[in-house]
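testing teh design pipeline on a random one, pls ignore if ur not involved
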């Protein structure tokens, strides 16, 4: 693939819709894949969940500035090139942007041709470094992200999620709780602007050192963002985590620092969330609940410890008949609905666990399929609600197998026609199990039709093409990917190149061509996330099996 053929993932952040649209049109149109959001907070949330080659952000935005977003992006995705745009030209601002890690700085009004050149140069730098898999081999497609943060010596954002996944797997296996804390330094951006980044770096470095002394050996501690730390506490309930959080808050409050006299002692807001042993959510979902609790703490006046599980249990403030009141009501009902849905999904997930216990070669199958399906959906640019629905459907897609006899599920040889006909009924059985709950009305068609083929030769109804729900087409590809990567009694694991070859070969026959192409793009970008199911321990698949 030549440089001119390479399509980058670009995120455009600006509170002016016209500017976002203009930039996306200039960089899109077959050149690159552009996503857009209207504020830095949403941009940071997206960067935590998806890879971007280039981020283009306005400098002055409500809630979080472009400089504050730059700090967070540098911590989370250090390989992402950040280009800042401002309507107020200043040599000092330009110097500060470059000093803090920006690739370039552009003043409004800007020429679109100049912007394209800056983006091309940013991508050229990434190619020269071997990122994106253009000039390098397969080994260079997976971008090297350091495990340790250079400033604090703690784990990085990426490494934290790796360790969190490991801890959650252990806690689920032994039915132990696990709690997560997100520790946010209050008004850190103001501290940086007033006293310089040398003081800000000193605060973060000293906080990191103090946190290492406070937490337990079994805990996992990381620098999560520019001014955020994250702490995973295995075998810890949320009540026990609250005690630890208070210990952390006191320790950081008493931190001896050589700060300017007018700087004041920095405080932290801490958000807590608990993951029970079988909770049907991803690591990102768990951490995001802790982040929501942090934001609630800041709304309460900072220097707070807030537990996510208690947010909806607080007495609602008196509401007046205005838009603010309606927004509060919607948020409250959303929390309640989410809690009820999670409680239902938790019990339903237990049925899937029972199915996987019946099939020795499908251990962790549903989790692997959920990982692949979510990755494909993000590559395709689907919305957050769609992605959440597809992930839930993936976690529950084999629940109907609870009605298939063990002798058929575990049969070592080929199935008879009658046995195969019974196995094919598992999608219908899933519908019978799940059809009476309104929580899954969007996910149910995905589950029922995830064995339909693009050419119409699948089951249960023989749907073809776009008549198959989009989520079902994505789940079908993800399910096939895990089957190919997994060890079975009759086969070894397929390697990465062979799986990509199968996806291409079956495109437009078994698989939706667009979905298959997105799956290939995800595999090429994330070879380190491939899971091999069916073995004693999950392992990574990096070469031909």
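output:
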């Amino acid at each position: 693939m030549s440089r001119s053929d390479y399509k980058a993932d670009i995120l455009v952040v600006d509170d002016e819709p016209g500017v976002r649209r203009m930039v996306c049109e200039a960089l899109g149109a077959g050149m690159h894949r552009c996503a857009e959001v209207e504020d830095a907070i949403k941009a940071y949330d997206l960067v935590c969940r998806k890879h971007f080659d280039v981020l283009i952000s306005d400098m002055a935005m409500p809630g979080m500035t472009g400089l504050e977003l730059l700090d967070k992006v540098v911590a989370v995705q250090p390989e992402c090139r950040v280009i800042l745009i401002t309507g107020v030209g200043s040599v000092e601002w330009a110097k500060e942007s470059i000093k803090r890690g920006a690739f370039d700085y552009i003043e409004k009004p800007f020429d679109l041709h100049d912007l394209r050149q800056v983006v091309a140069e940013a991508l050229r730098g990434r190619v020269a470094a071997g990122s994106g898999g253009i000039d390098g081999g397969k080994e260079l497609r997976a971008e090297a992200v350091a495990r340790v943060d250079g400033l604090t010596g703690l784990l990085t954002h990426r490494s934290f999620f790796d360790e969190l996944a490991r801890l959650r797997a252990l806690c689920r296996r032994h039915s132990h709780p696990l709690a997560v804390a997100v520790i946010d330094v209050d008004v850190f951006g103001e501290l940086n602007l007033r006293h310089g980044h040398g003081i800000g770096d000193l605060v973060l470095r000293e906080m990191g050192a103090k946190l290492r002394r406070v937490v337990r050996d079994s805990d996992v501690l990381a620098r999560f963002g520019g001014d955020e730390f994250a702490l995973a506490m295995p075998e810890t309930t949320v009540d026990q985590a609250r005690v630890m959080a208070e210990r952390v808050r006191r320790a950081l409050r008493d931190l001896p620092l050589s700060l300017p006299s007018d700087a004041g002692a920095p405080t932290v807001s801490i958000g807590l969330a608990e993951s029970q042993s079988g909770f049907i959510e991803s690591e990102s979902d768990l951490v995001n609940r802790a982040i929501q609790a942090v934001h609630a703490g800041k709304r309460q006046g900072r220097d707070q410890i807030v537990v996510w599980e208690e947010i909806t249990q607080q007495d609602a403030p008196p509401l007046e008949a205005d838009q603010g009141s309606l927004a509060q009501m919607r948020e409250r009902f959303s929390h309640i609905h989410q809690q009820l849905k999670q409680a239902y999904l938790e019990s339903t997930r237990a049925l899937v666990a029972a199915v996987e216990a019946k099939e020795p070669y499908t251990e962790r199958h549903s989790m692997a399929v959920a990982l692949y399906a979510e990755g494909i959906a993000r590559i395709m640019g689907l919305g957050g609600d769609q992605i959440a629905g597809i992930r839930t459907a993936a976690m529950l897609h084999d629940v109907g197998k609870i009605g298939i006899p063990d002798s058929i599920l575990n049969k070592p040889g080929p199935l008879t026609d009658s046995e195969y006909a019974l196995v094919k009924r598992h999608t219908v059985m899933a519908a019978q199990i799940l059809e009476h709950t309104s929580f899954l009305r969007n996910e149910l068609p995905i589950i029922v039709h995830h064995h339909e083929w693009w050419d119409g030769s699948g089951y249960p109804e023989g749907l073809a093409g776009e008549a198959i729900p989009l989520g079902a087409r994505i789940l079908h590809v993800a399910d096939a990917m895990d089957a190919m990567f997994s060890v079975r009694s009759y086969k070894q694991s397929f390697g990465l190149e062979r799986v990509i070859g199968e996806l291409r070969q079956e495109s437009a026959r078994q698989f939706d061509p667009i979905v298959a192409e997105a799956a290939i793009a995800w595999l090429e970008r994330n070879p380190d996330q491939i899971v091999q199911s069916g073995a004693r321990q999950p392992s990574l698949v990096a070469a031909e099996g």
